[in-house]
Amino acid sequence: MPLLTQQIQDEDDQYSLVASLDNVRNLSTILKHATCLATKNGIKVTVENAKWTLTAFRMCYQGYGYPLMLFLEEGGVVTVCKINTQEPEETLDFDFCSTSVINKIILQSEGLHEAFSELDMKSEVLQITMSPDKPYFRLSTFGNAGSSHLDYPKDSDLMEAFHCNQTQVNRYKISLLKPSTKALVLSCKVSIRTDNRDFPSLQYMIRNEDGQICFVEYYCCPDEEVPESES
Question: What's the pTM?
Answer without folding.
Answer: 0.65
